[in-house]
Amino acid sequence: MRTAVLVYGRINKCVEHYNNIVKQLGNVDVDFFLSSDNSDQKILDKFIMLYKPITYNNDKIHYNYNLGKYPGRRREITNTLMHNMTCHFINKNRVFILLEKYIHSFKKKYDCVVSLRIDAVFKNKFDFSELKENTIYIPFGYDYTGINDQIAYGKIDVMRKYNSINPLYLLENKLSIPHPENLTRTNIYMHKLNIERPMIKYHLHR
């Protein structure tokens, strides 16, 4: 099974978590893609050496909008967390664009696309067999009144909808509050994707 793994965000733990990620992805043919926000060059070099990404984007993220101005902002979501959330969605968009450009340029096909954080430590293997149409697979946990926005996988058309989330559209149309897990859940519902919750056990090690 040919699998594209879309890594987004910080890559500080890329060396420490490499063996775990490769092991728990299982016996699949994996291509890595990356979008990070101006990561340190030494860390980026280590990522490239280990993961051998097909392509990557490490440009500093710039944006000129404020997701925190919309109603429903929770007290615990500080300006720093709001910035991190904005970069989170931008990185997900950017890394999927890299994948699509590669597919179109080289006529590649993938059976599965995985979106994950590099600081996740997995305790059991992924199961990519018999992926259903129009279905996104998201592990249990970390829902925070919405749905887990850290790890997801599915067929490419499903992951296109998942990674290409437009939080501005959702907030402008009052479909969600400015909160990452709520925005993620709303985006999934808007695209009428079915959700399955595989028993993938993991924790974050930042």
Mean pLDDT across all residues, rounded?
Answer: 97
Shape designation: globular
Strand count, sense and barrel status of the largest sheet are: 5 strands, mixed
Uncertain regions spanning at least 5 consecutive residues: none
The DSSP helix count reads 6
- Helix/strand order: EHEHEHEEEEHHHEE
CATH class: Alpha Beta
Supply the number of structural domains. 1
- Name given to the CATH architecture: Alpha-Beta Complex
What's the CATH H-level superfamily name? Spore Coat Polysaccharide Biosynthesis Protein SpsA, Chain A
List the helices and strands and how they pair.
Elements: E1 2-8, H1 14-25, E2 29-35, H2 41-51, E3 55-57, H3 79-106, E4 112-116, E5 120-122, E6 135-137, E7 152-154, H4 156-163, H5 167-172, H6 180-190, E8 194-196, E9 202-204
Parallel strand pairs: 1-2, 1-4, 2-3, 6-8
Antiparallel strand pairs: 4-7, 5-9
Account of the protein in words:
- The protein is of the alpha/beta class and 206 residues long.
- It has a single domain, classed as Spore Coat Polysaccharide Biosynthesis Protein SpsA, Chain A (Alpha-Beta Complex).
- It contains six helices and nine strands, in the order E-H-E-H-E-H-E-E-E-E-H-H-H-E-E.
- The strands form three sheets. A five-stranded mixed β-sheet has the order 3-2-1-4-7, with helices on one face.
- Strand 1, helix 1 (14-25) and strand 2 form a beta-alpha-beta unit.
- The longest helix has 28 residues, at 79-106.
- It is globular.
- The mean pLDDT is 97.
Task: Spell out the key features of this protein.
single chain; Spore Coat Polysaccharide Biosynthesis Protein SpsA, Chain A; 206 residues; 37% helix; 9 strands
